[in-house]
Write a structure and sequence with these properties.
Blueprint lengths: L4 E4 L6 E2 L1 H14 L7 H7 L4 H11 L6 H17 L6 E2 L3 H9 L4 E8 H10 L8 E5 L10 H10 L6 E5 L2 H10 L2 E5 L16 E3 L7
Parallel strand pairs: 1-4, 1-6, 4-5, 6-7, 7-8
Antiparallel strand pairs: 2-3
Helix pairs in contact: 1-4, 3-4
């Protein structure tokens, strides 16, 4: 199908960020005297923000955590992650080639729940920023995915109608956001879907590589 624009989730759709997030998480756990957790667990927890990632790790260690603990440890994790945001994170196979083709046809945007400053830092570090006309991360709009606001904002900035855009993500959060704004949506099968079968999340299509878009 032909679309007027493409909106992409970031973590788990364009870039495999779990390696660096896992290292930042374990750096934080070590400071508070907890054992590290495997990257496989981090992959299962990624997708709902750093605070949720920390809560999951504390629960894994059977530790109670207060809001003050989360505030302090979130700051530690984010500071470490910011300085090591692309040490081991890489675009998935076919991503760069697909973006290069699509960006020659129509405008592209990123719609993510990753904070906007970190999203831009990651895209810059991996030389992906050149493909996108807008990056909408957490903090750009008051509400974030699955609310429709980020996708509406991205479409407005790109000058397209939401119904003419395709949303490309990896989780139910992306499906809900796309449906709320009226976009078609496809899911990348091998992203961060929290252990749920992407075939059952209500997308129009599930793809094994972003190269399927071209």
């Amino acid at each position: 199908m032909n679309y007027d624009a493409y909106l992409f989730d970031l973590d788990g759709t364009l870039v495999d960020t779990a390696p660096d997030l896992s290292r930042a998480l374990n750096h934080t756990l070590a400071i508070v005297g907890m054992d590290p957790v495997g990257e496989g667990l981090t992959r299962h927890w990624v997708g709902h923000g750093v605070r949720t990632l920390l809560e999951a790790a504390f629960r894994h260690h059977d530790q109670r955590v207060t809001e003050a603990d989360l505030d302090a440890n979130q700051a530690v994790l984010v500071d470490h992650y910011r300085e090591h945001i692309a040490d081991h994170s890489l675009p998935y196979d076919g991503v760069v080639e697909t973006l290069d083709v699509l960006a020659r046809r129509v405008p592209l945007g990123v719609v993510t729940n990753k904070p906007t400053d970190l999203s831009n830092r990651l895209l810059d570090a991996l030389d992906l920023a050149r493909f996108f006309g807008v990056v909408v991360g957490r903090g750009t709009t008051v509400r974030f995915k699955p609310a429709p606001d980020p996708a509406y904002h991205a479409c407005e900035q790109l000058g397209v109608r939401p119904a003419g855009a395709l949303f490309v993500g990896d989780s139910e959060t992306d499906v809900l956001c796309a449906r709320a704004v009226g976009c078609d949506v496809v899911l990348y099968r091998h992203g961060y879907n929290h252990g749920r079968d992407p075939e059952g999340l209500g997308a129009d299509r599930v793809i094994d590589s972003l190269s399927a878009l071209v």
